[in-house]
Specification:
Layout: H1 16-20, E1 38-45, E2 52-60, H2 66-69, E3 75-76, H3 80-83, H4 85-102, E4 106-113, E5 116-124, H5 129-141, H6 147-152, H7 156-163, E6 166-167, E7 174-178, E8 180-183, E9 186-192, H8 195-203, E10 208-212, H9 220-225, E11 228-231, H10 239-247, E12 250-253, E13 259-261, E14 266-268, E15 274-276, E16 280-284, E17 289-292, E18 297-298, H11 301-306, H12 317-332, E19 336-340, H13 344-352, E20 358-362, H14 372-380, H15 384-408, E21 413-417, H16 430-442, H17 448-460, H18 472-477, H19 481-498, E22 504-509, H20 515-536, E23 544-548, H21 551-555, H22 557-560, E24 566-569, H23 571-579, H24 583-589, H25 591-596, H26 613-627, E25 632-635, H27 643-651, E26 656-659, H28 664-679
Parallel strand pairs: 9-10, 10-11, 11-12, 19-20, 19-26, 20-21, 21-22, 22-23, 23-24, 24-25, 25-26
Antiparallel strand pairs: 1-2, 1-4, 2-3, 4-5, 6-18, 7-17, 8-12, 9-16, 13-14, 14-15, 16-17
Helix pairs in contact: 5-12, 7-28, 12-28, 13-15, 14-15, 15-19, 16-17, 19-20, 27-28
């Protein structure tokens, strides 16, 4: 968007390059530049902060684009008021006219020839994320644009940038490597090499960075305790990346140059630099850079605002602008925003960040840590009595989990996904357990429990667990498992009602491929809820729905809707099953080549594949609503926090998206922007 304007405009079609060379050939009647000539760049507002005023650079005794070329040192544009007051006054008037015309920050290149001002070009100026919010709010206050237009001029990516802590000057810290920027932010802490060490060190007040080759569900406690996570394997959709983003933890994955030695509790970087447990690391999840040593961290005032620690009126211009624009986004949005949360702390944060409920509570995360032996008991049970005993031990723990979640989200919906992953994920690794048992036998130690556990692990081992005994299949094959979970949900809701609360539980059945699976689980769930309601003397309303994450479920959504009160699209698995990808394997294996060769422009796990997976979402939503008018439809995959995907879901007519608590403000902003952009 370039235009010429101002005093002494050159003729139409004049070449700015000729203006640059004015005065180089006296034979053309052109004059040499002198002290009353020069060139510069002017911004109508500060592109760094958004503050109104005169900003830019000026270079005397020069012409054309010399100032942009950077070949000589410039002076602040305000110095032009002293050097050439007449030209400066003319420039100020041109700046006013151009900003008034374009209704935005203008970036103007100009030249002065012997006291005569020429405007070479004008464009809408680039700006920092903070300046984007500030300028949009200022223009609303000045009556130049309305709040809808202000929303069009800011983005979720800009808001995300404002929310993450950032590193200052690295100083004497040594850069070790660069990996994948899996979860933005800045983390400084002592290196630890196990989840247990992370919990222990954090418990005594140390900031830690958890360093692993890759993380597993067993590392969850350590990831919660750590300030940041660093892995040498995996990509942006690996376990470490997904969980870290969900918690708002800084994470760098796939730092392949690092040789992580877990036994020696050290990591070797390029050049032979060795980082031992206790050494300080600085991890930049925004750029993927990792340093040895502490780099200063600058906290985000915007996050403090969302956390409720900083009132908008006490914040700076950026905080006040964010407060104003996200409020308007909420007022305009048709698409609701919920959060993926599994703990009361995550739920409370999601609520502070503006979530309208929990769209996905992953109950598998409640079976880790100290509860893992109870799952082992369930797997090792040889009869119904043993299985019932293991489930009975888990039931009160589950009930307490749900009671705390319902309290944190009182008055808002909480969607609880019944157990999804295969049970062997809660058991020891096959190779490690085999070695452990073999060593015991070599030392003539009879490990009866180890032998039983090894037999169970071998029995349950699957070549492709993603396509094996998981999701609804578990609920149908393992007697009592889903019944225990549904009873815990119902009892927790009854307890909250008795305490004067307003619990709004919803039960979601994962990996359904045929309506018969859902009908069987639903029938049992409804019986359990009715039993609890009768026992406690309360009225319980527990909607039962399903995740649509198998292509067959999307194609038969009309049938499935007959047994489902809501759909939630699990776009992570739906993407894997539609593309035939194993997310944990393909990203590091060939995604770089696919991106480089243009097979896709962006990973389909980061932004929704609209023509493939998106078509299934639209088809399933349409068929589901045709069969059950008023059917609520939402999304609970990682795509629920991706700006581009949010706009697609809004156009597809879905009711809500669910994302990690930290992404909730971004999703709120983009939901509002989607409504404004759709209105034209």
């Amino acid at each position: 968007m370039e235009r010429r304007a101002g005093r002494g405009l050159p003729p139409a079609g004049a070449d700015p390059r000729r203006l640059r060379h004015r005065g180089q050939r006296d034979g053309d009647g052109l004059r040499q530049p002198g002290e009353d000539s020069g060139t510069g760049v002017a911004f109508t507002r500060d592109p760094a902060t958004g503050a109104p005023g005169v900003y830019g650079d000026y270079l005397a005794d020069a012409q054309g684009e010399d100032v942009v070329a950077g070949i000589r040192n410039t002076v602040p544009l305000t110095d032009l008021a002293t050097l050439d007051a007449r030209s400066f006054a003319g420039l100020r008037e041109v700046m006013r006219l151009l900003e008034e015309h374009y209704r935005d920050l203008c970036d103007i290149e100009f030249t002065i020839e012997r006291g005569r001002l020429w405007i070479l070009q004008n464009r809408v100026g680039k700006r920092t994320p903070g300046a984007a919010f500030v300028i949009a709010a200022q223009l609303v206050d000045e009556g130049v644009i309305d709040l809808d237009e202000a929303l069009r001029r800011v983005t979720g990516d800009q808001l995300a940038h404002l929310m993450f802590p950032a590193f200052g000057d690295a100083g004497g810290a040594v850069e070790l490597t660069r990996g994948m920027n899996a979860s933005p932010g800045a983390a400084v802490g002592r290196a630890v090499f196990s989840s247990a060490a992370a919990v222990e060190w954090a418990g005594r007040g140390e900031d830690v960075v958890l360093v692993r080759r890759e993380t597993t569900p067993d590392d969850l406690a350590g990831m919660i305790a750590a300030r940041g996570v660093l892995t040498s394997r995996g990509g942006r959709t690996s376990h470490a990346a997904v969980v870290a983003r969900g918690m708002g933890r800084t994470c760098v994955c796939g730092a392949e140059e690092l040789d992580v030695d877990l036994e020696a509790r050290q990591v070797t970087a390029p050049g032979g630099v060795v980082v031992r447990e206790g050494d300080v690391l600085s991890v930049d999840g925004t750029t993927g850079r990792v340093w040895l040593g502490a780099v200063p961290v600058e906290t985000s005032a915007v996050v403090r605002y969302f956390e409720g620690e900083l009132a908008p009126e006490d914040g700076d211009d950026v905080v006040q602008a964010v407060h104003r624009l996200i409020g308007h986004a909420d007022a305009r949005a048709r698409l609701g925003v919920e959060a993926n949360a599994d703990t009361p702390a995550d739920a409370a944060r999601a609520r502070r960040f503006g979530a309208r409920g929990i769209g996905l509570c992953r109950t598998e995360h409640m079976f880790l840590g100290e509860r893992r032996p109870l799952v082992e008991q369930l797997v090792l049970a040889e009869d119904d009595a043993g299985r019932e005993a293991a489930l009975a031990a888990l039931a009160p723990l589950q009930r307490q989990d749900f009671t705390e979640l319902f309290a944190a989200m009182d008055g808002l919906p909480v969607t609880i996904r019944l157990l999804d992953p295969p049970l062997h994920e809660f058991l020891p690794d096959l190779t490690e357990l085999s070695v452990e048992v073999a060593v015991a036998e070599e030392q003539h130690h009879h490990d009866a429990r180890g032998l039983r556990l090894l037999a169970a692990v071998r029995r349950m081992h699957e070549q492709n667990p993603m396509l094996g005994l998981r999701g609804v299949r578990l609920g149908l094959v393992v007697p009592g498992l889903y019944r225990m979970q549904v009873r815990a949900v119902a009892e927790a809701a009854a307890e909250r009602i008795a305490a004067g609360g307003d619990p709004r539980p919803q039960v979601m059945v994962p990996l359904v491929a045929t309506v018969t699976e859902l009908e069987l689980v639903r029938a049992e769930a409804e019986r359990v809820v009715a039993e609890v309601a009768a026992e406690r003397g309360v009225e319980l309303r527990v909607p039962i729905g399903t995740m649509i994450e198998v292509p067959r479920a999307a194609l038969t959504a009309g049938e499935i809707a007959g047994a489902a009160e809501f759909f939630s699209f699990g776009t992570n698995d739906l993407t894997q099953l539609t593309w035939g990808f194993s997310r944990d394997d393909v990203e590091a294996a060939f995604f770089p080549a696919y991106l480089q060769r243009g097979v896709f422009a962006v990973s389909p796990f980061e932004s929704l594949d609209r023509t493939g997976v998106g078509a299934l979402v639209e088809l399933a939503a349409a068929r589901g609503r045709a069969a059950r008018p008023g059917l609520r439809t939402g999304v609970c995959g990682e795509h629920g926090g991706d700006p581009e995907s949010i706009h697609f879901f809004a156009r597809a007519g879905l009711d809500d998206v669910s994302c990690s608590p930290f992404r909730v403000p971004v999703a709120r902003l983009e939901a509002g922007r989607a409504a404004v952009l759709a209105a034209g």
